[in-house]
Amino acid sequence: MTSLKPAFEAIEPNFGHSFTYQKFDSQRNNKNNSWHYHPEIELVYVNGGTGKRQIGSHVSYYGNGDLILIGSNLPHCGFTNALTGNESETVIQMKADFLGNDFFNIPEMKKIQSLFEIAQGGIAFSGKTKKKIGEKMEILEYQGDFQRLLSILNILNELAISQDFKVLNAEGFSMKTEVKDNDRINKVFNHVKANFKEEISLDEMADLVSMTVPSFCRYFKKITNKTFVQFVNEYRLVHASKLLAERPMSITDVCFESGFNNFSHFNKQFKAFTGQNPSEYRNQLKKVLN
User: Which of 75, 208, 281, 284 places its Cα 20 to 30 Å from the Cα of 152?
Assistant: First the structure.
């Protein structure tokens, strides 16, 4: 049995810099779409487009771009690819102590320090915050090093006081720093990502990480606060949401293309997940987009 190898991403700022800043567009795509983690805190702005976000055990579908803050060592996938339809993607990465061990301990930085702590669950920003901060992040491209640093601090401060946010792993995601735990949960997530359209048994997953089925079930629930079956179903439902929004497929085809083999079960699960049945969901999107 083969599986995608989990990736630890080593991030090194350019010489003379304490953080990394990258901007991607149609001429230069962000090719880091695999499941990975790194000690750096990551702020990502996707300008326009639609896609899937997977951060920790949270999986969801975003539309009209995205603004996400990802905490240290919180595993995630890339958010864009050739099919996302976004104009650009801006990424800022920094260690929590990128300005020194005690910088964020001073009174003026307490809100940012708190923001970093909340980001351990992954944060998605919306509304005016997404638009305003997204614009500020894109302007960084034209700024010098010192001005860019001041702008990043300003961006972090505005995020820290914003009310337009949602913690994606609100119930927690217990990502330990032990390499053994990182590799194990990464193997599981990578396997689901690659095989969610097929039947995935608990025996198969337990074997993949060299555990018994009961041990695997307890382990997965402890790490993610979700059962494995619940996680796989959510992954499939988010994929179905994406297909309903982007492809002129019949709902029956969406059902089977998303890994469900029973149409009535798919309808029931989709409504429980989104609050609407698939046809209502698609019609609602049409009203929003027209």
Answer: 75
The dihedral region occupied by 150, where left means phi > 0, alpha psi between -120 and 50, and beta the remainder, is alpha
Q: Which residues, 6 or more positions from 180, have their beta carbon under 8 angstroms from its beta carbon?
A: none
Residue 81: predicted pLDDT: 81
CB 67 within 8 A of CB 97: no
Hunting for tokens 């401060």 — which residue is that? 157
Q: Which residues of 188-220 are buried (b: 16+ CB within 10 A; e: fewer)?
A: bbbbbbeebeeebebeebbebbebeeeebbebb
User: Using one digit for the tens of pLDDT, what is the confidence trace for 141-189?
Assistant: 999 889 999 999 999 999 999 999 999 987 666 554 444 566 788 788 8
Tell me the per-residue pLDDT of 215-250, one tens digit each, with 9 for 90 and over: 999 988 888 888 999 999 989 998 898 888 888 889
Token pair listed for 243: 């297909």
HSE-CB of 226 using CA atoms within 13 angstroms: 20
Q: What is the DSSP string of the chain?
A: ---PPPEEPP--PPTT-SSEEEEEETTB-----S-EE-SSEEEEEEES--EEEEETTEEEEE-S-EEEEE-TT--B--S--TTS--SEEEEEEE-TTTT-TTGGGSGGGHHHHHHHHHGGG-EEE-HHHHHHHHHHHHHGGGS-HHHHHHHHHHHHHHHHH-S-EEETTTT-----S-HHHHHHHHHHHHHHHHHTTS---HHHHHHHTT--HHHHHHHHHHHHSS-HHHHHHHHHHHHHHHHHHH----HHHHHHHTT-S-HHHHHHHHHHHHSS-HHHHHHHHHHHH-
HSE toward the beta carbon, residue 98, CA cutoff 13 A: 24
